[in-house]
Design goal:
Helix content: 40-55%
């Protein structure tokens, strides 16, 4: 829902940062995943912090992701870089999907170097399945807090995974 002062295109992320202190280590494959997720996210996304929008806030937004005390911290600023809202999401329900995603990505990266096209396709289908279920879980956890589309949730889950790399 929009009003006369808020355009539909304003309900999006225009800039995203990851807390670099949270990320201890990442390899070239993960770095590439991070770059692609951020690029695709900025190009096209839907992101509306519900409570902040009710109070009159509008985007485009600057989002910063960090992990604090085992919870995902989403710091949302407006176009003037003024704090709009901070959200904390428990990550306990994400532990298994993150672990599964890392395992399947590792298999995928190994496969693209030495497996047959059929084997790569099978692993990629499994990877997409894990990623899709995790995106659905993220949308569920954001319900009532942030309105987002499925593609945005998928890319955000990728970035949440990057924050969990411990080396």
């Amino acid at each position: 829902m929009t009003d006369s002062t808020t355009l539909p295109g304003d309900q999006r992320i225009a800039k995203i940062d990851l807390d670099e202190e949270t990320i201890i280590w990442r390899n070239a494959d993960i770095e590439q995943e991070r770059r692609i997720a951020i690029f695709d996210l900025i190009e096209e996304n839907t992101f509306k912090p519900v409570r902040a929008a009710t109070r009159g806030a509008s985007g485009p937004y600057h989002l910063r992701l960090a992990v604090r005390d085992g919870r995902l911290l989403l710091t949302i600023n407006d176009r003037n870089d003024e704090l709009v809202e901070e959200l904390l999401l428990g990550l306990a329900r994400f532990r298994r999907p993150i672990r599964e995603y890392f395992a399947i990505c590792d298999s995928y990266y190994q496969a693209i170097r030495k497996a047959t096209p059929g084997e790569i396709e099978t692993i990629d289908m499994a990877r997409r399945g894990v990623h899709n279920r995790a995106a659905e879980l993220l949308q569920e956890r954001l319900e009532g807090k942030v309105e987002t589309d499925f593609a945005t949730a998928r890319r955000l889950f990728t970035l949440i995974c990057v924050l969990h790399i411990k080396g």
